[in-house]
Amino acid sequence: MELRHLRYFLMVAEERQMTRAAARLQMQQPPLSQQIQELEQELGFRLFRRLPRGVELTPAGAAFEEHARAIFATLSRGVENGQRVAAGVVGNVRVALTSSAAFHPTASAVVRMFRQQFPDVAVELQEISATDTVDALLDGSIDAAMLYGKAPLNTSPNLPSNGSDAHWPLVLQTDLLHDETMVLALPIGHRLLDDNDAIALASLANESFIFVQRQGGHHFYQAFIRNCERLGFMPQVAVEVPRIITAINLVATGAGLTVVPASMQGYLPGSVAYRRMVDDREITAALHLLTHRTAENPAARSFGDTVRNFVAGKL
Question: pLDDT for 89-143, tens place per residue?
Fold first, then answer.
């Protein structure tokens, strides 16, 4: 049985007349009658009772009509749902945030806006390290990521080349979301505070620092380290940790200092103080959106477009 046979049957059932049904189907009446007869033979029961001036459904035909219409209704819903999935307005998108990126207001704002614009797309958020984020994008276990870092040469037309050694794979598209000032995190009561609004970078030569492990977070500190070296010293690293949240927690215990994006300076306000660093060169970290250039998930493409339009001021 083919769908066209069901379509022929439903048209005859609606018109109650072979000639009119054939005209609507844009075919001749004899082939239509033959198709209906073949369908009846296949089903094993009569669909229509022939009348002098038309046809009427048999009881079995009336029962069959109900199910035939349900088949077409289901098919129509399937086509509509498929079109919505293909358009990226239905589905799911998996978004990864590093612990630092999760604090930036842009991250929460764009996710909230996307959910408002695409209510039928489920957004799954997860927090993973920068290194694991790149691997997850490459193996397809996530669809997009927001993290701090610098892109390699010619990764995205939206980004200038910067000579970074981050070396994100070229198959990943990187879009700059925000270039954020870095601030110094110190334990409450540290000798350098003294109610100062800012701390001279040169005064940090003898301080111990807590950094995120180089593999996952060295891009955080590149500008900071370069500026320290320019002043004649290398920051003393007391310990490296997997995540920046851990670094701030250790700062609260007095284990050392760290450097974080300004958006994180609301974390542990009773135990950690945050200060600007005074230097003749600005120390920043770049927040990026990473997506896969060849992603097949339409909802992921919708998410990427929404983030880019939001940052560009188009939303």
Answer: 999 999 999 989 999 999 999 999 999 999 999 999 999 888 788 899 999 999 9
Tokens in use for 118? 């695409």
Beta bridge partners of 186: 273
Q: 198: which 2 tokens?
A: 């800012």
Kind and range of the H or E element at 151?
none
Instruction: Give CA–CA dist 175/186, Å, rounded.
Output: 31
Of the candidates 95, 99, 96, 135, the one whose C-alpha atom is nearest the C-alpha of residue 241 is 99
So what's the pLDDT on residue 167?
59
Domains and CATH numbers, the chain: 3-86 (1.10.10.10), 93-315 (3.40.190.290)
Of 47, 41, 71, nearest in space to 61 by CA? 47
- Cβ within 8 Å of residue 247, ≥6 positions away: 185, 210, 211, 212, 241, 258, 260
The answer to whether the CB of 46 falls within 8 A of the CB of 58 is yes
Beta bridge pairs of residue 49: 56
SS (H, E, C) 13-71: HHHCCHHHHHHHCCCCHHHHHHHHHHHHHHHCCCCEEEECCEEEECHHHHHHHHHHHHH
For the entire predicted model, the pTM comes to 0.76
Express each pLDDT in 162-194 by its tens digit: 333 345 788 999 999 998 999 999 999 999 998
